[in-house]
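SAMPLE LOG
Freezer: B-3
Tube label: C17
Construct: single chain, 439 aa
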Amino acid sequence: MITRERLDRAAWSLKKEGPRAFAKKVIRFIPWAIGRTHVKYSPYLPKPLRAAAGKYASDYIYLSNPLFDITSNDLRKSLEVQKQPEPKEISSATWFVPYFDHLSFGGIYTIFRFINHFGEQGVRNRIIIYDNPHVDSQAMKAEIQKAFPNLADAELVIFNPTFDRVEDLPSTDIAVCTFWVSAYFLLRFNQTKRKYYFIQDYEPLFYEGGSMSALAESTYRFGFRGIVNTPGLLRAVNLRHGLEGVSFTPAVDPRYYYPPQREPNKRLRVFFYARPNNPRNAFNLGILIISILLKKYGKKIEIVTAGAEWSEKGFDLKGKITNLGLLNSLQEVGDLYRSCDIGFVYMLSKHPSYQPFEFMASGVATVTNNNEDNLWFLKDGTNCLVAEPSPMAMAEKIGWLIENDKLRAKIQRGGYKTVSNDWQPELERIWNDVKLAKD
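STRUCTURE (predicted):
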């Protein structure tokens, strides 16, 4: 993560080059803080930037970055790459990957699953960390190698967006972006024969309607072929933006997610995936549901939350629930899920998130909100209960599972039958799509 200390240190070094050069380069550098509010506290920023770094900081900073100043000529050159003959053999791949704190969690681990699989097919992988020039490359390489030993020979490049140029990166057979910001890098990276967009959510919805969401949405019109996490998401981006591609369905890791072998809980354990800084997980609605459940069922249930750090006291829940915050490993996550009877999660974007998959594999009866983009997977009354997002509607469905042991057992069985613990077919589906594109 780009911290205030790192930002200040970089800005201080740039200041020595003179006010104009400093201002220009710091404008290029700041966006990799991805709109974090600490930007406005840097004493070395030019006054106009400090003044702007309030309510509209994210938009101002992003719009000031030359990376997003694409032209019709940029689009034309990129589309010409897509029209050239396919490589006769896929022997090299460049992946634009965002900086990560924990390799083991969520979408970043999925990206590396596929990088690893491509490596197993003989592809030389080059991994570009494009948004944090201060990262410890040796530590990151060691973390990647620990999780994926076969990637020991992969090349890791720490890209400095202030000084490095995408056009100077080595050529490759194919190139893949993995987050909407990285799509702007890939647009300018024409030293390749094919461009792919690894899409794991509808990222314009990560922001309110405005400049940021517009920049994110634009990337779906760049002409890259999609590698899309879930068929529902592929259908959504295809219908709205015409993006063509191939989808995969997430599997679960059987090392961590499997049914429990334990005595029944004396008090039914209800889990909520609580992430206050991610609007798509509807934290505030979840807190209201918890209050409703505690009022109605009292000591008959135990509420557990995890996903992020937050203060229970501020919501009058201190001493009433168990808040585990951000867990440190997948083993802890799996152990937690197996200890629970019911799990509820919100997902308001066009991907069901990994929690329902992991809940079901761990024998947890799942409740989630109605979301048409995810109903290809979430089957109300079969593998989960689906409710309208209002607190009372969700609490009602959770209450059904609390009060009805047979229904809870049915949903648990149905959920477990739904999910797969075998990633191999999904990995091969994507590889075959890339490999056979030349035929």
